[in-house]
Design a protein that fits this description.
The complex is a heterodimer of chains A (about 270) and B (about 280). Chain A has about 270 residues and is mainly alpha-helical. Chain A has 10 helices and 2 strands. Chain A is flat, with a radius of gyration of 24 Å. Chain B has helices at about 50-55, 80-85, 100-110, 115-130, 145-160, 175-190, 205, 225-230, 235-240, 245-255, 265-275, and strands at about 5-15, 20-35, 35-40, 65-70, 70, 85-90, 165-170, 195-200, 210-215, 220-225. In chain B, the strands form 2 sheets. In chain B, strands 6-7-8-3-9-10 form a 6-stranded mixed beta sheet, with helices on both faces. In chain B, strands 2-1-4-5 form a 4-stranded antiparallel beta sheet, with helices on one face. The chains are: A mainly alpha (about 270), B alpha/beta (about 280).
């Protein structure tokens, strides 16, 4: 059961968005997030949403998958809404006891809500349409200009790749250790929080030890396969910026320009 | 045939945390011919894994010398050249797969060697074919069975185009089906001309080799063909090593007066000889 988890939240299908260069997708997502904070009226948000909607339709990712990404952050959105609603000073609309809701508060809360909503959907679209491996490749490529400044871009990407690879292995290991401890009478389900936290110690200690053992094995296996032999590494799947990526980049740039113009001209 | 690997009076000490040393391999010499299939057997702790890691320079001899294709493993300049020629497959399939996509993992070795991308893709395709896993190339390794994972690990070694592959107990953690899958692949690779070294404690596997080395407490106990080795059943028993079932059965039958030719090593041979008795 524990091994059925999916890595990241990649949704496998064939679409133009899926095939775009991961570097383009990462940069576009970052710019989209920045632009969301430039927008300050409903028309701007409408345009931003229209762009996102177009991308969602093109990506062929079912809507329920996209909304699933919102669930874990729902509380944060709700909290932000409430804070904004009550904390902003201004023209009072409703007042009860010590609380008051102002016109500016409603305005701000609505903006913040829309902003977070678009931000989360936008960034989950990136992880839904990009394989974890392509994502790490893209990050490596984007960070490689900083190699000259001493940033270990390749090593960081390799770490991410290995972390992704070993999440299921460590989950399996956890499952095994838990069963072994339960077989010896360990109890993880009853008692208060403190007791339950204490019950986790006999899981975490062996898990750490086994993680180190796995790391040692893996390091040996990687060395045996000539990792770090000093020859310049090549990649089987080189990321190539193709015509469709260029078109995508131009379309996205126009979209950004429209939003920014809307903000400063109206 | 010329010697591909020459081990000359190899001694290896592990340094323990308290500073004392533990001799794992104690003065071993043997030769492995190019294109041969050698099995190294012995109990746990007999030093066979340590020996294997010395062969591709993951460990360096404390004393003595190992030559791989004429290159000294102790020479740092030939380190990578040796690992390129002698690939290694380890016991635990999970702990040697690097990437979460099968084909990316197989590409890992050639990528490290700086092979051209187009050629890497070709090597990956051929390697997957060699281990009969073509349809799994875009799968995630953690969803595969143990035998399949081990075949992916073997494909990863094959993609480096080595002349020799050292298998360090590759079937120890597998179920019987996984074991036979992996063994089939190992035999096929040997047939393709790869010098094969198989470390195992399954005697049936060792019987398939053409050269068997028996280790005991860090020393070389026996060195010969499977027929020679398995005829010394009493000594093997003293070392707590079994004799493969067909060989054992052939001997018992021989003692009871059944007329069987010498040198029977596999179940198929025994069945064939028994059928011919009629």
């Amino acid at each position: 059961m524990i091994r059925d988890i999916t890595l990241g939240q990649y949704y496998q299908t064939e679409s133009l968005i899926h095939r775009l260069d991961p570097r383009l997708k990462i940069v576009a997502t970052l710019l989209y997030i920045v632009v969301l904070f430039v927008v300050d009226d409903f028309l701007g948000f409408a345009i931003a949403y229209a762009g996102l909607e177009t991308a969602i339709i093109m990506s062929k990712v079912p809507r329920r998958f996209i909304l699933k990404g919102l669930k874990p952050v729902f509380l944060i959105i709700a909290f932000t809404l409430v804070i904004n609603l009550f904390m902003i000073q201004g023209e009072v609309l409703v007042q009860f006891w010590k609380f008051h809701i102002t016109r500016e508060g409603v305005h701000m809360a609505a903006f913040m809500g829309i902003r977070l909503f678009l931000l989360i959907i936008g960034s989950s679209l990136l992880t839904l349409t990009t394989r974890p491996i392509s994502l790490t490749d893209g990050i490596e490529a984007l960070l490689s200009p900083f190699k000259k400044l001493g940033l270990p871009a390749h090593e960081l990407a390799m770490m991410m790749t290995i972390a992704l690879r070993f999440i299921p292995t460590l989950l399996e290991e956890t499952d095994k250790i838990m069963k072994a401890q339960q077989a010896r009478g360990a109890d993880f389900e009853t008692g208060n929080i403190l007791r339950r936290a204490k019950a986790l110690v006999p899981i975490l200690v062996p898990l750490f030890i086994s993680a180190f053992r796995i790391a040692q094995d893996l390091a040996l296996a990687m060395e045996a396969r000539c990792y770090g032999c000093g020859i310049r590494r090549t990649r089987m799947n080189e990321i190539r910026f193709e015509k469709r990526d260029l078109i995508g980049a131009i379309v996205f740039a126009c979209f950004l320009a429209v939003i920014v113009l809307e903000r400063f001209l109206w | 045939m010329s010697a591909f690997i020459e081990v000359d009076d190899l001694k290896f000490d592990y340094i323990k945390q308290d500073g004392t040393s533990l001799r794992a391999v104690d003065g071993i010499s043997f030769r492995i011919e190019r294109g041969s299939f050698t099995a190294i057997i012995g109990q746990n702790g007999s030093g066979k894994s340590t020996l294997a890691k010395n062969i591709n320079a993951l460990l360096l001899p404390t004393e003595g010398r190992i030559l791989v294709d004429g290159l000294d493993t102790a020479d740092p300049a030939s380190l990578w050249e040796i690992r390129r020629r002698v690939a290694m497959v380890f016991q635990n399939p999970d702990n040697q797969i690097v990437s979460s996509i099968v084909e990316d993992d197989i590409a890992f070795g050639p990528e490290n060697l700086g092979v051209d991308p187009a050629e890497i893709r070709q090597r990956v395709r051929f390697a997957l074919k060699d281990v009969e896993m073509e349809e799994y190339r875009r799968k995630a390794p953690h969803l595969l069975s143990g035998g399949q994972k081990q075949r992916i690990a073997i494909a990863g070694a094959v993609a480096m185009e080595p002349q020799c592959i050292v298998f360090d107990e590759p079937t120890a953690m597998l179920d019987p089906r996984g074991r036979s899958e992996v063994l089939k692949v190992i035999e096929r690779l040997h047939d393709k001309g790869i010098t094969t070294i198989l470390i195992t404690h399954f005697m049936e596997e060792a019987a398939r080799a053409d050269h068997v080395i028996v280790m005991n407490k860090g020393r070389l106990e026996m060195d010969g063909t499977p027929t020679e080795i398995f005829s010394r059943q009493d000594r093997l028993k003293e070392l707590s090593l079994d004799v493969p079932a067909p060989i054992y059965l052939a001997r018992i039958l021989g003692e009871r007066g059944v007329d069987l030719p010498p040198g029977i090593e596999t179940t198929e041979e025994l069945v064939r000889c028994l059928c011919q008795l009629q």
